[in-house]
């Protein structure tokens, strides 16, 4: 990977965290100081210490170098073998990733997500099954005591899980799924209006026969959400339906456990599922009885799915094969030469092979952001975390996603297992 990094990436930042994070999400804001050679974005992170130390919900700043002139074109000389990073001529020597706020958390943070209507409100999925909500503005940059102080606790689930999602069109409403086979739905604003403390769910949905691996709100229909589980099923629910044990739609979607689900933000009928069978299913909710298409290239279970916020047909997938794949659904069915077909299907744009551990989460930076003088965040910046403590911030070369794409050989991205 080292020799090819300057040609495959426009940005490549590798940061070793003190403890692994099982979650990462970009905040929606980006600061672009005119007198600095970088833009400043923020990431929401957690810790997973296995009780060897205190656990925290964390916010980190990330300095992403600006590319403002042809002289910033990358070459082999820009790659730092020791840090595993790319440096432009204008790069700062300051640390690229810095934790700026830590809030004590009860056990590891399985998942953390900010509320779209107020990014200062942060929800976490805990190992106890409870969901904790923090207003970061009410907490110091470092804890002032050893007491865990979430502002609101969402009760209702009795076992841990990883599914957690805020509605983007129903302010303050959040879903959580877990190993107790349930999906819980809360109105967090009601919790704040009661002065914090414990909040019971508005609804509890019991339809799955096993672990519920993930949940996803519909992007525009506020009452609709999806859930998937170890029972291999995809459920579509409507919160207006009084039945809490029978989804509006259901399909046996995969041959093995389903670990991820995501409604398309730009197409109200499209939904994705990621499974232990190594495939990503593309579904149309109007014809849920059959799969539209399968994305096939991963060599192990598909753990996470993330739609690009700027390119409607583009998504990222993370897998236990230690790879992050970038896909473009618009390229499905394009003709390929035999040589190209050996690299993967036409919709596979890019393979990020930088992680040596199993990925835990992947997310897109909101971008693009115009910061003047031709410098910008492209909208292709991605953050990915892995079990080996490594957080990576990267963007594929514009040669790959703009205009004529160059072929990315997977073997070029191989990382030694040692």
TrEMBL record:
PROSITE patterns: WD_REPEATS_1, WD_REPEATS_2, WD_REPEATS_REGION. Its main location: nucleus. The keyword Repeat applies. It is found in: Nucleus. The keyword Repeat applies. InterPro entries: Histone-bd_RBBP4-like_N (IPR022052), WD40/YVTN_repeat-like_dom_sf (IPR015943), WD40_PAC1 (IPR020472), WD40_repeat_CS (IPR019775), WD40_repeat_dom_sf (IPR036322), WD40_rpt (IPR001680), WD_repeat_RBAP46/RBAP48/MSI1 (IPR050459). This is Histone-binding protein. It comes from Rhizoctonia solani AG-3 Rhs1AP.
């Amino acid at each position: 990977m080292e020799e090819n990094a300057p040609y495959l990436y426009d940005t490549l930042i590798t940061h070793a965290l003190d403890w692994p994070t099982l979650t990462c999400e970009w905040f929606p804001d980006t600061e672009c100081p005119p007198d600095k050679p970088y833009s400043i974005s923020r990431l929401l992170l957690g810790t997973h210490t296995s009780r060897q130390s205190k656990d925290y919900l964390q916010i980190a700043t990330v300095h992403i170098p600006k590319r403002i002139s042809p002289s910033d074109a990358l070459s082999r000389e820009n790659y730092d073998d020791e840090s595993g990073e790319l440096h432009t001529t204008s790069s700062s020597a300051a640390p690229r990733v810095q934790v700026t706020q830590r809030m004590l958390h009860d056990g590891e943070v399985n998942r953390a997500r900010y509320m779209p209507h107020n990014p200062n409100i942060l929800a976490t999925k805990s190992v106890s099954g409870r969901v904790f909500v923090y207003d970061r503005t009410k907490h110091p940059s470092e804890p002032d005591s050893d007491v865990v102080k979430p502002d609101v606790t969402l009760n209702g689930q009795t076992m841990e899980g990883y599914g957690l999602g805020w509605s983007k069109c129903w302010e303050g409403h959040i879903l959580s799924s877990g190993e107790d086979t349930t999906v819980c739905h809360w109105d967090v604003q009601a919790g704040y209006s009661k002065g914090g403390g414990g909040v019971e769910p508005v609804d509890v949905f019991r339809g799955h026969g096993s672990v519920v691996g993930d949940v996803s709100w519909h992007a525009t229909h506020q009452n609709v959400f999806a859930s998937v589980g170890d029972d291999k099923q995809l459920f579509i629910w409507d919160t207006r339906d009084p039945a809490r044990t029978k989804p509006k739609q259901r399909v046996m979607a995969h041959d093995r456990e389903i670990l991820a689900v995501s409604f398309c933000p730009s197409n109200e009928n499209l939904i994705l599922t990621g499974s232990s069978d190594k495939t990503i299913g593309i579904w149309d909710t109007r014809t849920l009885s059959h799969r539209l298409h399968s994305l096939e290239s991963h060599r192990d279970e598909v753990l996470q799915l993330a739609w690009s916020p700027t390119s409607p047909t583009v998504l990222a997938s993370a897998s236990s094969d230690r790879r992050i794949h970038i896909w473009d659904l618009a390229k499905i069915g394009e003709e390929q030469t035999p040589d190209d077909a050996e690299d993967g299907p036409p919709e596979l744009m890019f393979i990020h092979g930088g992680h040596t551990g199993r990925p835990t989460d992947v997310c897109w930076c909101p971008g693009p952001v115009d910061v003047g003088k031709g410098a910008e965040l492209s909208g292709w910046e991605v953050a990915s975390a892995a079990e080996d403590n490594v957080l990576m911030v990267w963007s594929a070369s514009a040669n790959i996603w703009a205009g004529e794409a160059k072929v990315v050989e997977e073997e070029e991205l191989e990382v030694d297992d040692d």
